[in-house]
Amino acid sequence: MTQARRPGAGMVQLVGAGPGDPGLVTVRALELVRRAEVLVYDRLIPPGLVEEAPEGCELVDAGKLPDRHVLSQAEINALLVDRAKAGRRVVRLKGGDPFVFGRGAEEAEACVEAGVPFEVVPGVSAAVAVPAYAGIPATHRDLSSSFAVVSGQEDPGEGVPAARWAALAKVGTVCVLMGVGRLAAVVARLLEAGRDPGTPAAVIEQGATPAQRVVRATLATIAEEAGRSGIRAPAVIVVGEVVAMRERIAWYEHRPLFGQTVLVPRTREQASSFSALLRQRGAEPFEVPTIEVRPLERTAELDRAVGLLAAGAYDWVVLTSANGVAALRGRVEAAGLDARALGRARVAAVGPATEAALRGWGIAADLVPEVATTAALGEAFPARAGRVLLPRADLASPELSKAITAKGGGPDDVVAYRTVPLDEMDPAARKRLDGGEVDWVGFTAASTVAGFVRAYGGPTPPGIRVAAIGPVTAAAAEAAGMPVAAEAREHTVPGLVAAIEHAVAGDGHAP
Predict the structure, then answer these.
(1) Which of 161, 332, 431, 495 has a CA 20 to 30 Å removed from the CA of 197?
(2) CA 170 to CA 194: how far, in whole Å?
C-alpha cells in the first residue's frame, strides 16, 4: 500500500527484510534499500543487506535485544517522521514482515498523524519461513487445516485470558514467535487448555540461516529438551502434528556445506558471487574486507576519458564494480555533465551490484553476464565491439582487456580509483577467527592471500582450513604458511566452492 507522495517531499517505506536467508529478500525490498537516503534497521536483518545501501546513506541501528533497546519505539517513530519531513527517503528495514509482530502498524500510525507519506513492503514472515526451512509445513491436508501465529512476548501466565489458550489448543498448528524465554509457560498453558501432551513440538534456533538448530520432542518434554540443548533466541516454537513431517521432508540441513563458515576476503567483484554460491550450498559466507577503496589523487587520465566519452568516442563502457560506477559518475559530474555524457555508448556491468549502481545513476545496463565475474563478462562480451572504456581499479586484472582485444575490440583501460590493502582486520572478524568460529578461508587470487596476511598479521589460526582457486593462489598460501586443504581443478569461483564441498564430504580432492 502506498500513499501519494508530494513532489519533493520525503517519505517512509516500511520494508520487510525476511527471516534470515538473503535469498528471501524481495526484489522490491532490495530496490528500496539501494535507493535509501536514510536506512533505519533492526537487529535480525539478512547479512549483507545493510551494505546494499548507497554511499552517503545515513545508517541508523535501531536493533532491539530482550534486555536492551538502542532506541525506544517512540524514538524510532520520531526519527522516521523527522527525516521524512526533512525531505528524505527513509527506509525502515524490519526482520520478517513489518506487520507481523514488527510494530510496523505503530510506525505507520505515526506517519499518518504527522502527515508523512508512507509505503508498506511486506516481507516473508519467520512464522512460515523458519518452520519451512526445518522441514515443517504450517498446514497439511491430512494433519492440520489451520495454523495460528502467537507472540511470546506477553507472559502467558499474566493477564492473558484462559479463553485464548483454550482456542489456541484447538488450532492444528501453533507457531510462537519471540517466545523461547517463556517456553515453559507457553507449554503449561497449552497443556492446561487441553492440548495432548504427546503432540509433536519443535524449537528452531536461528532458522533460515546456516546456524539453524532444531530440537524436536513432545509438547510435554520440549521445554526440557530445548533447555538441555542450550537453545537461545532468536527461535521459533512450533506445536502440532505437522512437526512429525520433519522426519521425511527436512531439506535445508542436508545441503552439502550446511554448518560450514567460510571467510571470504572481500576484494573487488568476486566476493558477492562467491558468497552467493556458498549460501546456495548451505554455508555461511563471512565477508571480511582486506582492501580499502580510495579516490585518485590525480584525475587527468580519467577526465580525458570522460571528455572522449562525452564526444562520442566510445562504443562501450564496461563497469566491473559499483566503485567504478561511482568514480566515473563523480568525474562526469565534476565536468558539469550528467548521465547523458554516455551518449550512444552501450554499457556492460559485471554483476547485480554494479548494475544497481548504474540504475541509481539512471542508466540501464545493456549487458550483464549470468555469473558475476570478469571472466564471465569477457566471455559474454560481443565481438568487434569497437572502442571500449574500462574505468577500473589500479590493481585490476588485465584478463578482461585481453578478452576484449581477442574479440577484436579496442579496450582503453583507465584507472578510476585506488585499492589499498588494509593494515588491520576488523576486530569482530579477528575475534571470530581467533575464537574458532570459522571453518574455512577461501582465496580467489594470490592478492587475496597477501591482503589477508597483511590485515590479520599472519597465517590462519590452527584448525581453519584453506581453499585456493588454483595453483598460483595455492602456492601463495603455502608460501605464507597456510597449508591448502582444497584446490579447485576448474579455476573459477564455482570450482572453488566445489573443491570445498568435496573436501567437506571427505573426498579429499577437487572434482
Answers:
(1) 161
(2) 8
The 8-class DSSP code of residue 243 comes to G
**Total domain count for the chain?**
4
Local structure of 4: helix, strand or coil: coil
pLDDT tens across 152-205, in order? Answer: 876 666 665 666 888 999 999 999 999 999 999 999 999 999 999 999 999 999
Please indicate whether residue 42 is annotated as part of the active site.
Answer: yes
The answer to whether residue 15 sits within a structural domain is yes
Residue 1 designated active-site: no
Are residues 427 and 406 located together in one domain of the fold? no
Instruction: Please tell me whether residues 201 and 276 are part of one structural domain.
Output: no
Domain membership flag for residue 1: no
In a domain, 3, yes or no: no
| Ordered DSSP codes for 192-210 | HTT--TTSEEEEEETTTST
Per-residue pLDDT of 461-511, as tens digits, reads 999 999 998 888 899 999 999 999 999 988 778 889 999 999 999 854 444
Same domain, 452 and 405: no
Point out the catalytic residue in the list 21, 42, 412, 439: 42
Active site residue 196: no
Contact criterion met (CB below 8 Å) for 104 and 14 = yes
